[in-house]
Amino acid sequence: MAAAAPVAPPDLHKSSEKKGVVPLRAGQGHSFLWRRLHSLSGIVPIGAFLIEHILSNFETWNGPLAYAQQVKFLNSLPLVRVLEWGLIFIPLAFHALYGVWIAFRGRVNVNVYPWALNWMYITQRVTGLIAFAYIIQHVVRQRFMGVQLPEHPGAAFHKVQVELSNPWMLAIYVIAMVATTWHFAYGIWLFAVKWGITPGDRARKRFGYVCGAFGTALCLMGLISIYAVVYKYPNAPADVMPAQPAGITLPAPTTVAPGTTNPAQPGEVR
Fold first, then answer.
1. DSSP string covering 206-244
2. For residues 135 and 127, what is the distance between their CA atoms, to the nearest angstrom?
């Protein structure tokens, strides 16, 4: 009797193959590298820019002139346009577009596994999409439409105030501020986990409180800035730094000693 042919072991890889996102494993393909770059870009330079942007906008609490001076200072930095594209626009485009790709490739399973980290996962994706949509309109309207703020920094406060005079736009700004700061704060926590900075549950839990407090502080600063533009300084001048006509400069103030009269200036009739 002929011996039975040995049965080949089942191909576990084929039997377990499913459609969807391929599990991320170190050293396989390019996904690991791209996701690490995506995580890093959310901290540097995008996260650093977000912190600077909120701190700069907080100058609105000190009034239109203080905010205009901050805008003027930022636009007077050396190679400011190179920095703007190299450290803001290009990294932001990569982080946002790759983040959208991740969001639509992932699977939502909170209906089956309603765990905290699963809810955090879906919230991170939703807030990222909100921030992406908001940033597009914000950059287009404030940077490339209407008064050009790099050339007219004195009009910055009024330009934002006009935009926020629309109740719908005001609501969008508030929602976007909450979503963006939450996305960034949780992104810091994820970065620490992915890069091995916080090993262990205890370290992650403690760092979660730190990230939550930091994100709350940034959010409050952003909301206070919005409040200052809308309510603290209503009807701000269209330009607090009007350009002087060519060949005309404002005279320097004359210091007069107490008890004396101001001497007549040349050509002045007393």
1. HHHHHHHHHHHHHHHHHHHHHHIIIIIS-S--S-SSPPP
2. 12
Is 13 contained in some domain? no
> CA end-to-end span of the chain, whole Å?
134
Could you report the per-residue pLDDT of 16-66, keeping only the tens digit for each? Answer: 444 444 444 444 556 788 888 999 999 999 999 999 999 999 999 999 999
Give the count of domains, the chain.
1
Q: Is 3 part of any domain?
A: no
CATH number, domain containing residue 118:
1.20.1300.10
Q: How far apart are CA 102 and CA 122, in angstroms?
A: 11
pTM: 0.76
CB 124 within 8 A of CB 180: no
Token pair belonging to 125: 């994706």
CA-based nearest residue to 133, from 68, 179, 185: 179
In angstroms, the CA 201 to CA 179 distance is 26
In a domain, 15, yes or no: no
240 inside domain: no
Look-up: residue for tokens 């309603």? 114
**Segment (H or E) for 24:** none
Contacts of residues 155-160 at CB distance under 8 Å and 24 or more positions apart, as own/partner, are: 155/68, 155/238, 155/239, 156/67, 156/68, 156/71, 157/60, 157/63, 157/64, 157/67, 157/68, 157/229, 157/233, 157/236, 157/240, 158/64, 158/236, 158/237, 158/238, 158/239, 160/60, 160/229
Range of the domain at 62: 28-232
Tokens of 96: 């946002």
